[in-house]
Fold:
Amino acid sequence: MEGDPLQQLRDVHLPPDPSWWPPAIGWWLLALLILLALGWTCQQLFQAYKKRAPSRAARAQLTDLYHRYQAGEISAIEYLHNSNELLKRLMVRAYQQTSYARLSGDAWLRVLDEISGTSKFTSGSADVLGNVRFSAEPEVDVEQLHSALQQVLKKVKP
Structure:
């Protein structure tokens, strides 16, 4: 006998560690789910951005009107009429209701109060947007009117 046969055995060799690539099917499904969720979120954000485009444009135009008034290019009466027209166009576009275009007087002021969440239009300095603006010489406090209009434009959510 040539010695002990157990002495001729080698040590146990462990298999190599598994590679991280390619990932298991569960990881592929998770990646696909994350990509779909990311795509859906981006689409929702883009649609919300597009829906708010009229509000952004109205704010920019109102700011332009105010700067033109401050520069003396337009009078307070022109600022009043142009801002009222701008506000009506925005309301029709944002809320898809053409009835806003026909409103005037106290009904228009109540709608503006409702949207802004204040009473600046029916009982404040912004009441000049009602029937007062058709008088011969309406008293217009442009700074307060501009502030009230900005507040309304911030609240308009299409």
User: Anything to note?
Assistant: Residues 52-155 form one domain. The CA atoms of residues 65 and 137 lie 20 Å apart.
